[in-house]
Amino acid sequence: MATQLKNLSDFSSASNIPSAAGYTFGIVVAEWNAEITGALYNGAYQTLLKYGAAESAIHTYPVPGSFELTTGAELLLKTGKFDAVICLGCVIQGETRHFDFICDAVANGVSNVAIKYSKPVIFGVLTTDNQQQAIDRSGGKHGNKGDEAAVTAIKMAKMAELTAAL
Ligand SMILES: Nc1c(NC[C@H](O)[C@H](O)[C@H](O)CO)[nH]c(=O)[nH]c1=O
Ligand SMILES: CC(=O)[C@@H](O)COP(=O)(O)O
Predict the structure, then answer these.
(1) Does the ipTM surpass 0.90?
(2) Under a CB-based contact definition with an 8 Å cutoff, are residues 51 and 17 in contact?
(3) Which bound ligand lies closest to the C-alpha atom of 72?
(4) Does the CB atom of residue 91 touch ligand 2 within 6 A?
(5) Which SUPFAM superfamilies match (predicted)?
């Protein structure tokens, strides 16, 4: 499987990451599986700082679960004050089909909010079979999806800025 072949968060060879300076970011973080989402958040926050975002330009809001990430993104984007919103969560399969409904709702919801406001909303949600897969992708052997979400937010904020000038 491709995932097993690499650290998915290795940006060392990526020279095409724009500066995050001047952009305002929202980060909405689900409290479910907090040990995982906390690691995702730390990765995203530190990555934004690494690429030049000001601490004062990063605004963080917790929500109860991943299902609420869409609402969190909507509430932030309706203010008109954010260049990108990063949604962080971790949904781990349980005994029932609840997993499927949450994952589908968040993926579709995040996409719809991004389109509604023509602003980047980044899907930084782990959807795993078990806890170990989540650990591996939140600072473990497969990298940190929070890092990736932050890089995506920077790139998309830059694209939004460039296309607004067209
Ligand atoms: N089981 C997980 C949940 N469940 C909670 C939902 O996200 C939502 O808060 C609830 O249905 C009320 O609307 N959330 C996660 O983020 N991760 C899970 O594994
Ligand atoms: C993804 C979930 O909501 C899950 O944790 C709930 O567990 P279960 O499906 O066993 O009720």
Answers:
(1) yes
(2) yes
(3) 1
(4) yes
(5) Lumazine synthase (SSF52121)
